[in-house]
Design brief:
The chain has 13 helices and 13 strands. By secondary structure, the chain is α/β, with parallel strands linked by helices. The longest helix is centred in the N-terminal third of the chain and has 15 residues, at 84-98.
Length: 317
């Protein structure tokens, strides 16, 4: 049985919660930071074996010291809430001071560095800044770049991944992506945990300094819609068009969406930049991934029901 301790931050997020579940199940000790013990996921994690909840803000240096104390491993996915770069640097410093053996950071590329006229996405470039700092201070670290989450899709009117339910019972996905250029896909809840756990098992000797595209399928928007159609037994069509914002969105997210539309809608830039390819390394880590067709068949209807949708009942009538 494993005896190592993994420190994990923002543990109710999809990536982190996936790792908490898997690591707990196979016997790792998990120290899971979360802001508050509120919500279904927080309660689930607290009830898992081998999990110690560390409640509080990452700006608190005493909390961070407790988080890393006597831990050997760390999985860190910072968020855009608060000063992400300052928090990311402080976590890296604390992890180095604590002697963390292997630090896995969920990063993203900064397309603006490649000199091709591509814009920097604000919520990605901050992660890349943190990645560079981690490298500079000499932490034994691996950097995972997450693909597009399968469960971004919803029939609620959120921007970019709305599967709009039309009056004839079909779905329509409208987005700026080229219909035939493949994009990287990831079922974060199902597959991040096993993949990151394999990184820890292999250790920094194999993976230190590496950037890994954490995506298990490369599918174009048309291919995604075909898989949704097969899974749901409904017509699902893709329409290329500008991002539509129909609901209130967090401060700063509009700039992210505007950049996404230019970068991938107009310039057709590679999602992870020109130097990182998917899915070979992800598949080396974990072959039991949940593809988007299985997600659409098994999970999407459940998430829709949880959001108050009833179209699934029409299929059963």
């Amino acid at each position: 049985m494993p005896t190592k301790t993994i420190a994990i931050v923002n543990s109710t997020g999809r990536q982190a919660a996936s790792l908490v579940r898997v690591a707990s199940a196979v016997g790792y000790h998990v120290r899971a930071q979360l802001l508050k013990r509120e919500g279904i996921v927080a309660q689930e994690l607290e009830d898992l074996p081998n999990v110690t909840i560390v409640e509080g803000r990452l700006e608190d240096p005493e909390l961070v010291q407790i988080l890393f104390k006597n831990a050997q491993l760390a999985f860190i996915n910072t968020t855009s809430w608060g000063n992400e770069v300052a928090i990311g640097k402080a976590l890296a410093n604390a992890a180095k001071k604590a002697g963390i053996h292997h630090y896995v950071y969920s990063s993203m590329p900064d397309h603006g560095i490649f000199g091709r006229g591509w814009p920097s996405l604000p919520q990605w470039s901050s992660k890349f800044t943190i990645e560079n700092y981690i490298r500079q201070i000499g932490l034994p670290a691996t950097f995972v770049y997450a693909g597009i989450y399968n469960n971004n899709f919803t029939s609620l009117p959120y921007p970019l991944f709305c599967m709009d339910l039309t009056p004839d019972g079909s779905f329509e996905w409208k987005a700026p992506f080229h219909p035939d250029i493949p994009l990287p896909w990831l079922d974060a809840e199902h597959d991040v945990g096993p993949a990151v756990l394999q990184l820890f098992k292999d250790g920094p000797r194999k993976w230190s300094g590496h950037r890994i595209a954490l995506a298990f399928e490369m599918l174009s928007p048309r291919q995604v819609c075909a898989k949704f159609s097969s899974a749901l037994h409904r017509h699902v069509r893709y329409v290329r068009g500008p991002i539509e914002i129909k609901v209130s969105i967090p401060t700063g997210y509009r700039e992210q969406l505007d950049g996404l539309q230019i970068l991938f809608g107009e310039q057709n830039a590679p999602y992870f930049g020109p130097d990182i390819q998917a899915p070979d390394e992800a598949l080396e880590l974990w072959e039991g991934y949940r593809g988007i067709e299985e997600y659409a068949r098994e999970v999407f209807p459940l998430e829709e029901a949880a959001n108050g949708m009833t179209w699934m009942s029409d299929d059963q009538a």
